[in-house]
User: Which sequence fits this backbone?
């Protein structure tokens, strides 16, 4: 995806319409093609304009359009997402100018107001500047108590350092996880967590806001994903979320983190197969999405609806799940790449229902390479797509294609599939291969014994629900039962 396409992909529909109006007001000539180019990019037909005006003129026009988009989005972001910070900075600059001109009383009056605003949004870096200004002029008789100011600065600096330590710990762990996921490195995650938290002196006795809780929740989610064991994840941060909800930091600045924390909690509960609690937190998430005039409603709806559909599907309400997913496609608010997750879930539901034609139709739309999907949506999604595709084509009778897909999968991902966290996958694929080459083997005692010998399952509560859904296919074949019923039964705790 080009730079201009990536920026456009984060623009909401009102921002796209606003940008077109912005260009129309700025254009002084009627033959300017920037609006036409912008619309052509939205409709994936920019090649038409390139053909009309030639490569050189097209590249110049595209560069200018990119610069215009950056300027426009910077202005929109400052207006909608950094309003509080900008107002504080403006007033702080005014305070400093007042102090320079000996307007001390008014300077401290405004500075006090600015301090309250910065505290309300937990902006520790701006508070450092505010206390720096306080202390610089604390020699004045009109200043607050000097020792108190020193104490406030030290306390704020401690909070600032704690926040940055957590940020460094979070970044360290995420980078290590990326090496595991994309470079197939092995890692002792428990050791990493302990060493990282010790290195950055992270303890539970600290002040929390939604940003720091989001980072802690992300670490928990990464841990569960790496181990393929969400059952053991400690959701201690749920109580801390409840404590700060409705408080001074539960505001627009932290809204995106509030939404994301609720999503992660809902996702962890889903992976734990506690579907009721997952749906409860999705309801909370939707309520936050609707705050501040639906500020993040459109941008977070894909995540929300996809996870809600998964929950509904696994409690036996597959029709409602499909309807929720279809709404995302009907809305036409999102491009296809934004809908890769719900697309795969929709295929999975159709497959579980035996609706092979629909599943084949939708899976044929995945036209990118595995490498592209790895980079843009992640390794787990890419592997799940491959597993789904293999099982679907077995049902469709495309044996040669299945052989090719399994061989390709093992060639590309054999190292990671052979790791402890996914040890059953390779065994499963070998058993699948035996079955589709000789379907009669499914009822033999020898085959059942081979399954017992090669598939080492975790305790039911710890088995990953997604991998379990693929294993359910083989179990359904053995028991000669409908796949969806077997899947639902396995998903129960």
Assistant:
């Amino acid at each position: 995806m080009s730079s201009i396409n990536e920026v456009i992909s984060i623009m909401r529909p009102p921002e796209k319409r606003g940008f077109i109006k912005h260009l129309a007001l700025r254009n002084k000539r009627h033959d300017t093609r920037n609006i036409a180019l912008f619309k052509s990019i939205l409709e994936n037909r920019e090649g038409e304009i390139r053909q009309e005006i030639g490569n050189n003129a097209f590249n110049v026009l595209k560069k200018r359009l990119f610069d215009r988009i950056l300027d426009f989005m910077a202005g929109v972001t400052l207006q909608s997402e950094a309003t509080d910070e900008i107002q504080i900075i403006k007033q702080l600059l005014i305070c400093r100018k007042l102090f320079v001109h000996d307007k001390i009383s008014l300077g401290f009056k405004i500075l006090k107001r600015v301090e309250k605003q910065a505290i309300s949004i937990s902006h520790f870096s701006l508070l450092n500047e505010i206390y720096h200004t306080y202390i610089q002029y604390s020699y004045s008789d009109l200043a607050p108590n000097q020792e108190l100011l020193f104490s406030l600065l030290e306390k704020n600096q401690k909070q600032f350092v704690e926040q940055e330590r957590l940020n460094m710990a979070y970044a360290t762990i995420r980078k290590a996880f990326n090496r595991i996921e994309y470079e197939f490195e092995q890692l002792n995650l428990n050791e990493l967590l302990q060493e990282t938290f010790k290195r950055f002196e992270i303890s539970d006795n600290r002040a929390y806001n939604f940003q720091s809780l989001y980072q802690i929740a992300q670490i928990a989610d990464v841990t569960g994903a790496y181990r393929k064991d969400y059952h053991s994840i400690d959701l201690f941060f749920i109580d801390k979320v409840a404590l700060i909800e409705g408080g001074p930091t539960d505001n627009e600045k932290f809204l995106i983190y509030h939404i994301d924390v609720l999503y992660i909690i809902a996702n962890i509960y889903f992976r734990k197969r506690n579907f009721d609690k997952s749906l409860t937190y999705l309801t909370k998430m939707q309520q936050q999405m609707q705050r501040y005039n639906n500020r993040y409603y459109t941008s977070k709806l894909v995540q929300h609806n996809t996870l809600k559909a998964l929950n509904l599907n696994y409690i036996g309400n597959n029709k409602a799940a499909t309807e929720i997913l279809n709404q995302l496609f009907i809305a036409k608010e999102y491009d296809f790449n934004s809908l890769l997750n719900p697309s795969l879930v929709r295929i999975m539901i159709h497959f579980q229902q035996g609706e092979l034609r629909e599943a084949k139709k939708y899976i044929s739309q995945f036209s990118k390479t595995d490498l592209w999907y790895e980079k843009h949506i992640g390794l787990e999604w890419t592997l799940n797509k491959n597993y789904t595709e293999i099982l679907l084509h077995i049902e469709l009778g495309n044996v040669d294609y299945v052989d090719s897909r399994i061989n390709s999968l093992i060639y590309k991902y054999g190292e990671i599939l052979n790791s402890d966290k996914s040890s059953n996958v390779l065994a499963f694929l070998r058993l699948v291969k035996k079955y589709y080459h000789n379907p009669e083997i499914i009822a033999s005692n020898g085959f059942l014994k081979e399954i017992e010998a090669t598939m080492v399952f975790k305790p039911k509560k710890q088995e990953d629900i997604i991998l379990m859904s693929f294993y359910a296919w083989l179990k359904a074949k053995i028991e000669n039962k409908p796949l969806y019923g077997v899947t639902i039964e396995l998903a129960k705790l």
About this structure: The CA atoms of residues 84 and 247 lie 17 Å apart.
